[in-house]
Fold:
Amino acid sequence: MKLTGILALGACLAAVPAAFAQKWEVGGAVGGGFYTSQAVSSPAGSADATFKTGLSGSAWVGNTTSSHWGGEVRYDFQVGAMKLSGNGAEATFGAQTHQIHYDFLWHAGSSEARVRPFLAAGAGIKVYRGTGTETLTQPISRVALLTKTQDVRPMISIGGGLKFRVSERVDFRLQIHDYLTPFPKDVIAPAAGASVGGWIHDIVPSFGLSFLF
Amino acid sequence: MRNNFLGWMIALGVILGGSATAGTFGKVVAIGGSASDLALDEPRGVLYIANYTANRVEVMSLANLTVQTSINVASQPSGLALSPDGRYLVVTHYGNFVAPASPNNGLTVIDLTTNGKQTFVLGNPPLGVAFGLDNKALVVTSQEFILFDPITGTTQVLDTVAGVTAKTLPQPPATFPLTILGASMSTSQDGLVIYGLTDTLRFRYYVNTKTLQSVGYTASPPLGPRVVTVSADGSSWAGGWALFSSGGSLVGQFPNALGALNIGSLAMDNKRGLMYAQVPEAGSATTSAAPVLQIVDSDNLTVREKIQLSENLAGKSVIASDANTMYSISDSGVTVFPIGSLDQAHRVVASQEDVIFRGNFCDRRVASQQITIVNPGGGRTAFTLSTTTAGVTISPSSGITPATVRISVDPTAFQNQKGTVAALINVKSAQAVNLPTQIRVLINNREPDQRGTFFDIPGKLVDILPDPSRDRFYVLRQDKNQVLVFDGTNFSQVATLRTGNTPTQMAITFDKRYLLVGADNSQLLYVYDLETLQSLQPVAMPGGHYPRSVASSAKAILVANRVSGSVHTIDRVDLGTRQATQLPTLGVFANDVDQNTNLVASPNGSSIMAASANGNLWLYNANADTFTVSRKDGTSLSGAYAASSFDQFVVGGTLYNSSLVSVAKFDASTGTTSGFAFIDGSAIRTNAPDPASPGNIQRVDLTTATGIRTTRFAEAPLTGVTGFVFTRTLAPLYSRNSIVSLSVSGFTVLPWTYDDSVAPPRIDRVVSSADLAQGVAPGGLVTIVGANLSPVNAASREIPLPTALADSCLTVNGLPVPIVFVSPKQINAQLPFEAVGNVTLIVRTPGGVSDNFNLVILPTAPRVFLSGNAGDVDNLPTLVRNTNNLLVTDTNPVHRGDVVTIYLTGMGTVTPAAPAGQPAPTDPLATAIVQPDVTLGGVHLPLYFAGLSPGQVGVYQIDVSIPANTPTGLTIPLTINQGGQATTINIRVVN
Structure:
């Protein structure tokens, strides 16, 4: 799926809550992503496959439909090289991810409180893109292949945080999300005879500002 | 910009001016008198020319190369020097008249800013003048060195001069300024050192310290042309035919120089590391040969190019600061050379020095090869080619550069000459300013019994030496002043070492760490580190000693010299101090040897034998550290020479014992001796009846001196020539895998057991070279698997491919087959395009002829080469992504949208037709007549090209693009189907 298609889907999702909108919010945040790893096993050995920690950026458009409930469409971008390690060797390959998803938000406390804890849960898609320079060989290539290609996976998002009222129109957010996808087997492709499965978590703490209107 | 444009126009005008005189370089500017010195004033755009006989300084415009004004000065202006600040022009006057005329020796200072002149009288005739960076002029007279300050007009006597005899005036008719003055001076580019030369004195003056050093010398012939030129930093300088280091060592010399003081010139081009030199050879003055300017390396005088002059140069040359123009005194006055625009002049060169035709018993057809005749500057120059050798034809024999010329050889014309005939093709051009070198055509027509694989090494090879502890060997190329270092496994050249001029012999020190190289035109013994193959500080020989031969024992390193003078000597080298000392005596014998003396050390370091062309033999004993034997049992010696570790020595066809008494004579019927090598307790020797014969090699029973199993060579080993009568041409390699012999084409390699009986060859199967699978097609590369297919491993390094390699050749239905590689169990070759259907394959080797091997050659049999490797993964199919020009691997997979090139063989005939063994054409491309259908994962791939890969032999390529609907995965089948024959490989495809 092309990135433009993904963005179009996100725009449609954003349009759904708009029908019920009472108060709107636009925001952005920066943070860092921390991935869990998955073991790739093959007759030639095994390796841990993951993405290196990298900077992330987010943007969202949200609304509140009641004093406790709300929702937001989010776009997240993250830079972090793919990494394979095992048998005393390590291979890395440039990568980035794009994700778009809709999260439902439940807030504790009243909408006028200066500090509002919230929980978030939702779903969307995540695009893994290998961006490194292709070479004739890679370390541990008998186990898995770090590939310059694109891999689109469904994604579950859960998280939470705190909203601090800075002014009538501005909130400051501290938040943490866990983005879960099935393992991206196209960009980190198991070599012939190798296998990998399961989900990979991308835990992203971040902070940012929201503008309310 | 305008100045640049003007400069180019002048350069163009000069080149065209040169061209107008048909094949000469430079523009002559006549001055109506005899020029004696030059000074270049670039800020004013003029060249000052001292017109000795017309009593004026001509001022030539650099813009239009005409003498626009003249400065009248006192009589006989002999020397010129321009102060570094450009203000003063100092003119010396050599007017050493005798009664009844009066002497008028003097010095004039011209203030170029005011045109004011002041003349000073000198008591002695001035020989030369040069400015240092301090704006003071060093004036050399016949009696003293004077420092002259042009500002104050004061002089300071630095030193007196002894032994210089100044010529008196008048002189006989047709005597030239340089002959009268006999002196020259020049300043380094940095202005800090002034070098000078007179008939009997060499001197240098350090400007900063005002230190003058002079030394008397003798030279025969005289150091002519009497011109001095200095390197930018003053670290070296040339005077006459000699090149000196700053310390005074003679680094190199032009060979066989005439020594005339007034003919020729020198100028160092510090920007290019070159020297432009006209140094006539002895005898040239009496011939009608056109004068020639040599372009040589400024460090060792290696000749790069020879340029024809319209008239002789006759004194100093100066090069402009941008190194684009050289101004030289010449017979008419001045000749101006646009050296920076030499590429725009007409020149002609051949693309290769040698063209080699390897005929063989499988192939008696007329063979042809193409060479290219070009103008190195890219221009169009008419040329003609000719040869006097019957059986060699050239088509076309004339043309305009760039041109491709076909040289054809009819083997029947050479059928009685089983060695290598070296025919010469003369390259001539009425337009070209250079003297093109001849093309050597090497034609070999060997028979099955002739052993060895010869390698083409152009040039004059004079010595070979195996490394005693490394699997490599060294070959001395005399015409290019090089040691060529070859790998002993694959015989490829791995390094080139620069030597002194005209290198003659090599030696390796007893500790096996250093290579020593002597030369006939340098007074330095060159030293190289054999581990790093780097040049080290050379050994300075005593003055006048040219180290022609060197040998190293366990105790001493000795050098046999040609010495300027009547007595030639043996010197001892101290490698630690890099000095050599003439031995006072050779033991109880006088140190007086023939100039043609060669040394050789026994491998165990116990002794060094010296063999002289006049018949003298000497033996240095390392234990006694002196010469213990001197004998002369004949009037001459020549040929091969060698020393063993068992007190046995060989010169020519004679075996000597430890007292150098002849103990045996070898069979003389096999021809002139060439090489001899002791191997343990036995020996091998080579001989040649004549250069075009096969020559032969035989093992020698040292107890009886009888030759054993005389075996014919592929071509004749080299034999001695006048002046260099001793030859060392055999090198048994350290690995004991091969024996290498210098031979007509370069060198010939024989297996260590070259004379073992050889079983007849046997063919087991024939497969595609691409993947070693069954199915071969015309024009494809095939692998013949069998036994006894060749005595050695050898790979062809020549294009077109030879039809015989390392004594093996093969035919298919009688057609010779071009060979890529041979080994005992495998031959790789290219099937002729004419071979199709049921054919018979036969291999011929020195062991005999194989049985017929019946084979079906399909019209097409595409096979992708599985020769790629990436890291530790081998046998990868040779697909290349055009995106990054890398082999397709799992980590560099094919992407949708890529363009991929597949390299394969076996695609059959092509159009236009391409002959087997020849590189595929580039324009037009040779397209496969039967086009393939290529699918990837079942998707048909659009085809851009399918045919022979341009420039390759037997290699085809298919260029395809990868559509967007191609399936992705780790192992997607790529299938090439051509004419009903298909091959499939699996590749990774990603989005």
